[in-house]
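User: Show me a protein chain along with its predicted structure.
Assistant: Here is one chain, sequence first, then structure tokens.
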Amino acid sequence: MLTVRVPKDVEERIEELAKLTHRSKSFYIREALNAYLEDIEDYYISLERLARKDAKRYTIEEAKEKLGL
């Protein structure tokens, strides 16, 4: 269980979305937290990898080529 205080306008937006979609406010809060956590975890993984001296660096063109784009 977790209790979080949010600004009134954010609460109203969540409530409106929940009513509109017939989902719970908790559903949208969980979805938002999961998305944020994935992004912030990726950010810190990126920082860690960039800090490694032996890390291979690619130009945009090299990355596109490796990805087949």
